[in-house]
Amino acid sequence: MTEVEQIEDRVLELSPSEFAEFRTWFREALFISSAKT
What we know:
The protein is built from 2 helices and no strands. By secondary structure, it is mostly helical. It has one domain. The chain is flat, with a radius of gyration of 12 Å. It starts with a helix and ends with a helix. The mean pLDDT is about 90.
């Protein structure tokens, strides 16, 4: 099982409010990583 698959499994178990928080965090993480390059 890859790291991405483990993350997907965890996300599927989240409640809608937790998922919204995760999605916000994920967008920020993507934005930060793309801003570094």
